[in-house]
Amino acid sequence: MPESPEVQALIEDVGARFVGREIHDVDVAEFRVTKTRGRPPSSLAGEQVTGATRRGKHVDISVGGSGHLVVSLGRHGWARYRDAGGDAVDSTDAPPTLIAFTFNDGDVLEFTDAGEWVSLGCWIVEDPAEVPAIAKLGPDPADPGYSRADFDRAVARRRKKIKAILQEQESIAGIGNAYSDEILHAAKVSPVAHAAALTPAELDRLFEATVGTVVTAIDAQRGIPLSGLKAAKVAAMRAHGRAGQACAVCGDTIRDFSFASTTAQYCPTCQTDGTVLPLKTSRNGERLSAGGRSE
To answer: What residue stretches are annotated with the Formamidopyrimidine-DNA glycosylase catalytic domain (predicted)?
Structure first.
């Protein structure tokens, strides 16, 4: 799932390419992506792009005088470009395009979805806050004004697992499964610890890791071509996706554990005082993947 660093890189690239250019045509290949029936994407034809902003994990493209194209990338959504006169992308080799915006010079911005179900969504609104998920967003740790007070309001004294809070968009915007693993590993905090049980020292480390991990990742991914952002994200991970590999800090083996409906990673030595967290298995004892399928 794209998280705030990848979405930030995306909107900066979209802004650099398309601000000041006019949308000529909109092709909706999958009607389920359209979330505002009263104002369909086709209504953007003839409008000029005036800006591009990230709101949590959402893309917000300003169009015309006061309109906004808000895109939720969901679990498997992403974007790509097609130059004027370029061949159509082969759907057998790449995720299918669900909605495409053609500009007045023929260049195309496509939004894709590689999942088994449609998770991509598009809204055309006057105010981004009309999108329910944006209206509920909490403070963003990438914002220069993000403070320890913002963090404490989200975390302190809550009887909820800290990994869940980090991924709770209403509390802290922009973080998902991958970066919450990275933050907790950097802070040396157990992902299943309740926030109310964390010591002042752990909260200090967690605040620094939350801001530092997100800001560092945004800086590192800035300017990377869209097609290379996923690989760059994977390469930078020290805990997430590293199950079976040695921890870069202590040398112990990074392990999987089951969390909510997915699988996450942690280091027992660095984070849980050696305790091994449970991993869901199937009835025949096989390890389950993040989607609940036997591996």
So the answer is: 2-118
Is the same domain home to 121 and 194? no
Residues 167 and 257 in one domain: yes
For the segment 128-184, what is each residue's pLDDT rounded down to a tens digit?
Answer: 999 999 999 999 999 999 999 999 999 988 999 999 999 999 999 999 999 999 999
Q: What is the CATH number of the domain that holds 237?
A: 1.10.8.50
Express each pLDDT in 229-265 by its tens digit.
999 999 999 999 999 999 999 999 999 999 988 999 9
pTM: 0.91
Q: Domain with 40 in it: what CATH number?
A: 3.20.190.10
CB 70 within 8 A of CB 59: yes
The answer as to whether 175 is a domain residue is yes
- Domain of residue 52 covers 4-135
Question: What total number of domains does the chain contain?
Answer: 2
43 found inside a domain: yes
